[in-house]
Amino acid sequence: MKLLTSRDNPQYRKLRQLASNSAASRKGEYAILDGIHLCQAYLGHVGIPVLCVASQTSQHHPEVSAIVQECKSGGAKCLLLTDSLYRPISQVENGVDIVFVISKPAVQTCPVLRQTAVLLDRIQDPGNLGSILRSAAAAGIARVFCSAGTASAWSPRVLRAGMGAHFLLEIVENVVLEDVMEASEIPVIATTPYTETTIYDCDLRLPVAWLLGHEGKGIRESLLDKASDRVVVPHQGAMESLNVAACAAVCFFEQVRQNRVCSGGNRPLPD
Amino acid sequence: MKLLTSRDNPQYRKLRQLASNSAASRKGEYAILDGIHLCQAYLGHVGIPVLCVASQTSQHHPEVSAIVQECKSGGAKCLLLTDSLYRPISQVENGVDIVFVISKPAVQTCPVLRQTAVLLDRIQDPGNLGSILRSAAAAGIARVFCSAGTASAWSPRVLRAGMGAHFLLEIVENVVLEDVMEASEIPVIATTPYTETTIYDCDLRLPVAWLLGHEGKGIRESLLDKASDRVVVPHQGAMESLNVAACAAVCFFEQVRQNRVCSGGNRPLPD
Predict the structure, then answer these.
(1) A236–B139: do the CB atoms touch at under 8 Å?
(2) What average pLDDT does the structure give for chain A?
(3) CATH, domain range A117-262
(4) For A122-131, B2-11, B23-32, B195-204, which range has the lowest pLDDT when averaged over its residues?
(5) What are the tRNA/rRNA methyltransferase SpoU type domain coordinates in residue numbering (chains A, B) (predicted)?
(6) B198 and A CB contact within 8 Å
(7) Regarding the domain with residue range B2-103, which homologous superfamily does it belong to in the CATH classification?
């Protein structure tokens, strides 16, 4: 495996730029996967990366050497960095040193909504976005649409919080949600604290599109006006609202629950 | 209002240390509340802080001046900082400059569990801990017990993510969870991906204690062994697990749902 030792190596400089999470790197065609778990998930669900990078210390770690071996067999380029060169590449503290460089999936055109999906209006926090993607994948949802102003889905922090959800979902970014909602063939359900209708009053046994909004400001009026229904997770009075990722999880799994009841999957509670 | 202009002022140095989130500040008797929302929540739910601090720029902001006024009327000490002195105090980007210094609630002795509560085993991420506290308060849960090794509940990041939940909950830190579980008069339900029993199979209409564990390692075996039940949020096979804060929200609100059904609060779905 080729060892890089110089900060001035052009390949190293590119790698460092990509890892910096700058606007330039966000718009590029590559993303960086940081840590054993994401790399294993990528190998399992997608395939061989463009580039596999380990540090001199980590190369003998059994899971790292298994990953590197699989990459080599699949024809991926592999690089070794000195520990001091590796450090600025990774944002994971106390992790095992391995990153993949991958091609982001090709930009999708927006399909007409017919299956359960998630519409995100300007979600700011990378941890929240990653958690929402992870919950969506865990609930069996296949597509997530992000408006302009939502955190970049393929940034290192969102990838880390997503824990591999990115490889199970189709994620469409910079979407004009108004257009998607107008063309939708399924109801769009907006979550907002300002309604009396709870998610438990809502029939979720058929596909719906879940619309979730900005952490502080919620969903834009222009989108709320186009939603089929407005629902709330019925929180106690003194707490104003739930975290948006917690709200998303409750909604997605209420739908899972209703569909399990429908298919006889839940044991009925005794009277 | 007194204006501080020197970095060497002893009061300023104390404030800066408190805001630095160091081990020393975590163990102290004071905590710092950063931003308008937390300060308003404190005034609304608890009362007057020890100290109220604004910046020269923010002092004319209408919400800040209302908060300062309320603090002064209540007898709190108020300080004004130059903008450059204020900056290192706050971790909020693009926020409005106001912080409170408050006394942390007195350390509780562990009461015997009789009402629904949350037991946290080594939750690492401040955002996750804050989100769990927020969901617990929103679900009407009154008490949260944190093991040693859980993030510090009164640190600025957890306070921020908690969005005021701290003032609605009784939070007990550095708890020996084994002891609490042994003395518990209600079932302790451990959440883990390694079981077939789903939360929907579980009767949650009476009080339970929810046990949630470390983001990567889950709940310690010594605690799992003492739990009355092990349950899972039934996620799809390809996604290994949910984020712990998402899992917590789904559990807490499944209990809310079952209790609403019980009290006739949910509209039954049509057949």
Answers:
(1) yes
(2) 92
(3) 3.40.1280.10
(4) B23-32
(5) 117-252
(6) yes
(7) Ribosomal protein L30/S12 (3.30.1330.30)
